[in-house]
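Response to reviewer comment R2.3. The reviewers asked that we include at least one raw input/output pair. We reproduce the pair for Right-handed parallel beta-helix repeat-containing protein here without editing.
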Amino acid sequence: MIYSFINFENQLSNSANAYLRITLKFAMLSIACLLLSVTSVSAFTFYVATNGSDKFSGKLAHPNAQNTDGPFATLTAARNAIRKMRQSKPTESFTVEIAAGTYYLTEPFVLLPEDSGTATAPVVYKSIGTGAVFMCGMPVSNFQVKNGLWVARLPALLAKQGFEQLYVNGERAVRAKSPNNGFFAPEKVVETVIEKGSDRVAAKATQKVYINGNDAGWLKAVKKEEINKVVLTFYHKWDNTRKYIDSLNLTDSSVTVRGQGMKSWNPLNDKTQYIAENFKAALDTAGEWFLEQPGTLYYKPLPGQTIQNTTVLAPVTQQLLVVKGASAAQNVSFINFENIAFKVTGYQLPALGQEPVQAAAPVAAAIIIDYANHVNFKNCEIANTGANGIWYREGCSNSTISGCYLHDLGAGGIKLGALKFGADTAEITNHITIDNNIINSGGYTFPCAAGIAVFHAFRNTITHNDIADFRYSGISVGWVWGYKPSVTHHNTISYNHIHHLGWGELSDMGGIYTLGPSPGTQITNNVIHHIYSRTYGGWGLYTDEGSSDILLENNLVYETKSAGFHQHYGKNNIVRNNIFAKGIESQLQMSRVETHQSFTFKRNIIYYKQGELFKTNPKKYWENAVTVVDSNIYWNASARQPNFPFGGLEEWRKSGHDQHSSIADPGFVDAEHYNFHIRNTAVIKQIGFKQFDYNKAGVYGTKEWLDKAKLSKAKLASFDELMQSTNKVFSEH
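Raw output as returned:
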């Protein structure tokens, strides 16, 4: 290439401009230097395969004929080889090619600062095709059939440490529980404080849970030796509490649990729901399992399952991959993972149980990353987890997770940021991109977890994800209650498809939920629908305590139980150019009056057939709050007049609101079947509404990828059945 440029330069005529000749020489010199710098970075490939050996060099993709050399058997051997070679070749670019197959781990794969690459010489771990699967699970075999159950003695490791999840033919099996469907509710809960705490919650306390007489059957079925192994999972408002039974009293039909005191703002009471799991008598339904100490597994097979066609895996660790930098200055950097499946991890409840924490915030993940820069995941799969999928936790930056499939999750999918922050911004996670991922079917261990949770983190981009089938919020942003200083700001949440959340198990949730000040944060072009809470609080866009300086624009929200938009309290939020449609109980809601401006609500379309337009409240929030509400379209498709604060639209206008708004049919193409494209352009032009292409929300790519994001027809039908009961109640309102 250099010779060609020189030859071209010599062919210039003698009369050519001297300046051009000099410029060309400098250009050729620059290109030559660039080529030399690029060619100075060489690439080296190590290989890993299921038929490899860590005694081999790892330099061959397949074992040689003599079986004296070939690929490594483990990622650890490949990592160690890179460490050693980098000492003499610091500019080398390394690729670890992993052959298709299943690789069983008994401990996490760990990467430290010395395992880093560079911007020009990254380290790449990639599967050849998409067939490499890493599992922190151990197969359970040698089953025998006894009384309709499969029974197996466990390997020594599993028998010693136990497990609380089980995966059968790649699917999560159900730990023996009661009831099999739905929940129990206590008659009452009485707390005894043992030691007061420094805040509003007692440091130590017991809670005596009185069992309803109709539900006492499970209590009597628990064997004496099982009592302290039975786990109660309580569902109360937006939280879960998970506790072992401390004692059981058949005389008054009660059980006692211990730990911290209850939170006064969300205690256990007769409105709480719960399930009881992990006792043998509950093993009464196909697909359930029970682990009897010291190491006997029982499984009740599903129809069609035989010992010969069934694979059973029990998790042996909580993490599959740990990326652990030492500090912000000494981090792990420039490592890529491509086309790899990470599956089968566990979670074990601590001896004192799990106290309620919003969004299951402290619960760990299968992949944990701390102090890392440019650590990326592309086209990977994370599934069958005991807790969360992946957590970019402390001091992470400039990293991307894209094209990944996260499903069958014990908690949430992706978490960003730590739960505390200090003065050093280098410690705060930032500039993480979450794009084009499918994140669905989670909350099996911790129902209160969110699909994506952003704690203390800034300037992150969350786009084009499909988030569905969780028991709580889809995306949660912020970790400051009220107006205290926050480092969560300038986050972009756009073009996500968020749907089928709640399942009637918890309350107080949002398709997109925000918390605390978040200047510069933009929530735009998302599609949110089918949000169904247990009681109150199934909202689409939900700006909770202290949410401030957030733009919510060009979002389509429909089929929410409580309202399409709800602000608890906040400051200077802008809600603009959105479509809120087909809310069940109401369409718009707010819950606090403050002296500052709470939000601006302009150029929105509100369309409904049942429930209220503005959620009424005896405290008259809408009537007394400081808001700017104007240039909106309201339409009740049932032909009833919309209800406004103070009465009708004219009375509402007297308060200064909706001066340029109208009651008019926006002319959706087919709202009944969720086609919200607008035909009546003249009406929307009057308020300045700008049409947006909501079909761009969600994942993009091949038909196979788009189809993978769709929930099964059976699951959709189950969700619709849940919503019908509420629909019937409010269809007459």
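The first strand starts at residue 43 and ends at 48. The chain has five domains: 2-39, 107-136+317-463, 137-176+284-313, 186-282, 467-699. Further pairs are available on request from the corresponding author.
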